[in-house]
Amino acid sequence: MSNSARLVRRHFLIVVALLSVFTAITSAQDWIRTGTGLGVERVRLAAADFKASNSDPGNVNLLKTFNDVLWNDLDNAGIFDLVSKSFYPLQEPGQPSEINFSAWNSPPPNTSMLAFGNLGVAGGKVTVQGWLYDVKNEKSPQVLGKQYSDNATNDAVRVIAHRFADEIIFRLGGGVNGIAETKIYFVSERTGHKEIWMMDYDGANQQQVTHLGSISLSPRISPDGSRLAFSAINKGGWEIMMYSFDLNRIVAFPRFGGMNLSPSWSPDGKIAFSSSRNGYPNIFVIDPSGGNSHRLTEGKGPDVSPSWNRKTGSQIAFVSGRTGLPQIYTMESDGTNLQRLTDQGYAVSPNWSPNGQFLTLSWMRKYGGGEPGSNDLYLMDIASKQWVQLTHDAGRNDFPCWSPDGRHIVFQSHRTGSDQIFSMLADGSNVKQLTFKGANTQPNWSWK
Amino acid sequence: MAASADTGIEMYDADIYSEHAQLRRPLAWSFGLHVAFAAFVVLYATYMQGFRGSGWGSGGTGDAMGATLVSSVPLPANPEQTTNVLATESKGLSKSQPAVEEKQPEAIPIPDKNTKVKPKPVISATKRKAEPEPPETNQIPYGEGGPVSGPYTMTAGGAKGGFGFTGSGGDFGSRYAWYVEAVQRKVTENWLKYEVDPGIREASRVYLTFDIGRDGHPSNIQMEQPSNVPSLNQSALRALQRIDTFGPLPSDYSGGKVSVEFWFDYKR
């Protein structure tokens, strides 16, 4: 055999060997075969109180904060059937070696998942170890194991609890990030002026953002969370203002003349807003710096309250009174393909869901003399125009806004006798009041 | 009677006085009868003792009802507090699986009330592994009564479904059942049945296949076997297309992707 023939044969053998290895790898592919109708239920989850990992006296308060925050976050997630603590075994684990599987995976707790761990303070630092175990699967139980360390303060422990909760929600919720670290921006009158405030998603840590001493409305946080657009009245009238969280102050932004209201961010950072610079309120779009302004709607309108499709950024919903009472319309982001979504009553405050599939709106379906209509929140499927009523017999409800996980809605309601901020699951259940001081309105949920 | 208001008081006095006179005779009769009754009682108690039943108060005979001292009633003995009442106080849950509930007191003893009982060691996860393992075919590692080692089928609310694992890799479903359930939950949530032609009452099963990469994104979505209803096929495809991610594959899973066969059953 010649050298060239040997060389060809050697190369051929190498190729065959590589192919066989590749085939072996691909044939080892795991398959899942599953389908619909298998009884999709919420994940049954137990969250054992974290235990102290040392005897430092500072553990007590921090443990209480951590356990309370973690429990509330998991309870608010909307995807768990959280097992009541009264069903838990007396010996709760602080680390994996302390788990008694049979005590958790059979009644009374009968849980599928167990979150547990420990917390300890040492040298001014707090260290938290947390685990998530599939206790029905003793052979391979660990789903998640995390360790956090930070300054031993209540605020830091709150953040750690939020992060651990979000990790659990991310794993068990099909890759959707939790909202425990998200923020809600809103208008509050508690100082005597309508200023922009912010708070954690659960109503904690309420802080004032603007101090203009006039009237500030319609806060809208940018997709990256670095800037806040809002409308405020000043010497020139109603203008779009911009607050920078990087600089912690209001930054310069172009003034357009006329009445400029209700800004809305697109996923790529453009801003749509209502402006009457040409005489009638119409929808305009500008780039993040305020330049390149162009008008999307025409006519007397008035056209207000634009809301971008948060998934695609290719559509805008808005409110128009062009036919009389305000109704919800949609159009492409270049102003074409105008469509009317509501055909009766008084419909305002559209807000697009993160998956681009739904709109929430505030709708008084029966409006006018002799029509005792109520101001309720509705969910409308864009494609089918089918709608679902979310609030019932609970005062005036307005300004719904989706959470970034698409599972929650924050809104303003007068059900307690004053305007306050509430949150609920997107099916209208699990309503929780978030603000209590003064009058609080127009909430806006951060993008992440 | 009174002819005027001024004389009324005097006339009432006269009436009361006259009634005293009328009661004198009945009062005398009443006194006499009371005295006679008292005398009868005294005489009966003195001379008639022999007529009392001997069994009176001692479970006696005849027609008299029996009675016994309270101290002799067999009261239940003081229950020994050896079980964890709080942990087992669930009528609804424990009734359905009584055998499992019986193990509870052993697993979670109350230390301060079991001083006379030799405490049994808490079974740790590592020691449990040393015990003989139950047969693989009967294991249900995740979900109460949930299928893992299928094929498995069930019917619920008019919709049928199935569940099972095959392939040479083999154990993804048993190791990461929580992930499989998340996939199933997410696809089902994103399947909008109103997209199916409302005139259709029942259709044959639609089979789709797709891959899930390490980052959780679905790819290579294919219609493996369509049904006889085009709108059902489209709704199934759209359900998958709406999903951006199922979440990253478990970090300790060595494979680069997982292939999924998902079926949709439709019945109105």
How would you describe this structure to a colleague?
The complex is a heterodimer of chains A (448) and B (268). In chain A, strand 8 and strand 9 (195-200) form a beta hairpin. In chain A, strands 2, 3, 4, 5, 6 and 7 form a 6-stranded mixed beta sheet that branches. A 4-stranded antiparallel beta sheet of chain A has the order 10-9-8-31, with no helix packed on it. Chain A has helices at 3-27, 59-76, 101-105, 154-172; strands at 30-35, 43-47, 51-52, 80-82, 113-122, 125-134, 142-151, 183-188, 195-200, 207-208, 216-221, 227-234, 237-244, 249-251, 260-265, 271-275, 282-286, 294-295, 303-308, 315-320, 327-332, 339-340, 346-352, 358-364, 376-381, 387-389, 397-402, 408-413, 420-425, 432-433, 440-445. Chain A is mainly β. Chain A folds into 2 domains: 43-172, Rossmann fold; 183-445, Neuraminidase (6 Propeller), CATH 2.120.10. The model of chain A is unreliable at 22-27 (pLDDT under 50). Among the domains of chain B are: 84-111, no CATH class; 148-267, Fusion Protein Consisting Of Minor Coat Protein, Glycine Rich Linker, Tola, And A His Tag, Chain: A, Domain 2 (2-Layer Sandwich). Chain B is rod-shaped. Chain B contains 9 helices and 5 strands. Classes of the chains: A mainly beta (448), B alpha+beta (268). Chains A and B meet through strand 1, helix 3 and helix 4 of A and helix 2, helix 3, helix 6, strand 1 and strand 2 of B.
Q: What's this entry about, in short?
A:
With 448 residues, chain A is mainly beta. Chain A has four helices and 31 strands. Chain B is an alpha+beta fold and 268 residues long.
- What CATH architecture label of the domain at 148-267 in chain B applies? 2-Layer Sandwich
Tally the helices of chain A.
4
Major sheet description of chain B: 3 strands, antiparallel
> Can you identify the CATH superfamily of the largest domain in chain A?
TolB, C-terminal domain
Shape of chain A: globular
Widest β-sheet, arrangement of strands of chain B: 4-3-5
Instruction: Enumerate the spans of chain A where pLDDT stays under 50 for 5 or more consecutive residues.
Output: 22-27
Distance between the termini of chain A: 68 Å
Identify the CATH architecture of the largest domain in chain A: 6 Propeller
Give the SSE string of chain B. HHHHHHEEHHEEHE
| Gyration radius from CA atoms of chain B, angstroms | 44 Å
Topology-level CATH name of the domain at 148-267 in chain B: Fusion Protein Consisting Of Minor Coat Protein, Glycine Rich Linker, Tola, And A His Tag, Chain: A, Domain 2
